[in-house]
Write a structure and sequence with these properties.
single chain, 189 residues, 5 helices, rod-shaped
């Protein structure tokens, strides 16, 4: 039992001597908590992105269906005009009205589909920002662990800088303020 007590006393004395470990512990707990909140928000954004993308695909499919109906109506009018028998003006007007309605419907559907695409792109921008936040904070936590072992102050400072950068990116993403340009989104693919 004497060895265990001695080892514990030694560890306590070293902990009291090194204030860097207590700083590391406090910062890691704060960073990990913030990272968890960012992860929750990012998961929610991914769900919203999936919904917007599915809605966009549905809208474009509906647009194509309307285009097909429009083309069928145009072809029907052409065939009726080419037939030797007399086609009533009412029939031709009916098809012309259908064609006009299809064109009108297609324009509305196109705007809706483009709106879903814009919604996806807007969400995706902040999704990237949250992912970069998570990466920076994960690296910072790892560096804090190494700092606790090595007691290097420069490593502690570097981890703090990464943490602050991650927290700033995450906080601005929560408020939908983009700090990343389009070049970062293109870089991340």
């Amino acid at each position: 039992m004497g060895e265990i007590e001695e080892t514990i006393k030694e560890a306590i004395e070293k902990a009291e001597e090194s204030s860097i470990n207590s700083r590391v512990a406090i910062i890691v707990s704060l960073v990990a908590t913030f990272m968890a909140l960012c992860n929750i928000k990012n998961s929610s954004m991914i769900q919203s992105m999936s919904k917007a993308q599915a809605s966009s695909i549905d809208a474009w499919s509906y647009y194509e269906a309307k285009s097909t109906k429009e083309n069928l109506a145009v072809n029907t009018v052409e065939l009726l005009k080419l037939q030797a028998q007399k086609v009533s003006d009412a029939t031709l007007k009916n098809y012309a009205d259908k064609i006009a309605q299809y064109e009108k419907d297609k324009e509305a559907i196109k705007k809706q589909a483009e709106g879903y695409e814009k919604q996806y792109d807007d969400i995706h921008e902040f999704n990237d920002q949250f992912e970069i936040t998570e990466a920076l904070l994960s690296i910072a936590i790892a560096l804090f662990g190494i700092t606790a072992l090595t007691q290097k102050k420069w490593l502690f400072a570097f981890a703090v800088v990464l943490s602050i950068t991650g927290v700033v990116l995450g906080t601005t993403a929560f408020f939908k303020i983009s700090l990343l340009g389009e070049w970062v989104a293109k870089l991340l693919g």
